[in-house]
């Protein structure tokens, strides 16, 4: 992890604790990185680049609780920016190959993959009912037994198992539907 990423991770941790100056510094640094990232990819459409910077900063604000300071801030930011760019291309029915340059975001690929996977999982869980998402999170992501999950949720053990099973089934169906939309 680069020195900048370590600094940004520390600032983001402070921001998550309510430090407004740290949060302002994080957003300003992210804005500078995002401007360059989107301008390189949308050079023919600078207005969309500016819009995507703002959309991404809003997503950073909305998803700030998901940031894990043990991982690269750049990878986390890149994951969010990448999804915003993909959404932009989908809205405008464009399909392009986007070459990644070394200077885009200095991120370890393992960190980036972990961050993207975490974002995917969080997005999948957000589409499920709260009971199902909680059961999946406790049993399959945090490694608790069904009994431990039931105790934490104040529910019957078999009900938690059923919720987790139905949630996984719904998530698989949602993933299948998403794949069908992309084809």
From TrEMBL:
Signal peptide: none annotated. Keywords: DNA-binding, Sigma factor, Transcription, Transcription regulation. The keyword Cytoplasm does not apply. Residues 33-95 form the RNA polymerase sigma-70 region domain. The keyword ATP-binding does not apply. SUPFAM superfamilies: Sigma2 domain of RNA polymerase sigma factors (SSF88946), Sigma3 and sigma4 domains of RNA polymerase sigma factors (SSF88659). Residues 120-170 form the RNA polymerase sigma factor 70 region 4 type domain. It comes from the Bacteria. InterPro entries: RNA_pol_sigma-70-like, RNA_pol_sigma-70_dom, RNA_pol_sigma70_r2, RNA_pol_sigma70_r4_t2, RNA_pol_sigma_r2, RNA_pol_sigma_r3/r4-like, WH-like_DNA-bd_sf. Belongs to the sigma-70 factor family. ECF subfamily. PANTHER family: ECF RNA POLYMERASE SIGMA FACTOR SIGD, RNA POLYMERASE ECF-TYPE SIGMA FACTO. This is Sigma-70 family RNA polymerase sigma factor. It comes from Hyphobacterium vulgare.
């Amino acid at each position: 992890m680069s020195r900048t990423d370590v600094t940004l991770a520390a600032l983001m941790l402070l921001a998550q604790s309510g430090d407004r100056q740290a949060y302002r510094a994080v957003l300003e640094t992210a804005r500078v990185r995002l401007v360059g990232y989107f301008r390189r990819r949308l050079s023919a459409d600078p207005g969309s680049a500016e819009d995507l910077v703002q959309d991404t900063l809003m997503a950073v604000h909305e998803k700030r609780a998901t940031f894990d300071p043990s991982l690269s801030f750049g990878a986390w930011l890149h994951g969010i920016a990448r999804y915003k760019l993909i959404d932009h291309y989908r809205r405008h029915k464009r399909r392009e190959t986007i070459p990644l340059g070394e200077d885009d975001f200095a991120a370890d690929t393992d960190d980036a993959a972990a961050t993207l996977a975490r974002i995917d999982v969080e997005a999948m869980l957000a589409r499920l009912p709260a009971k199902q998402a909680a059961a999946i999170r406790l049993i399959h992501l945090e490694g608790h037994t069904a009994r431990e999950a039931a105790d934490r949720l104040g529910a019957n053990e078999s009900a938690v198992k059923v919720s987790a099973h139905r949630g996984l089934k719904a998530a698989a169906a949602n993933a299948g539907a998403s794949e069908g939309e992309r084809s």
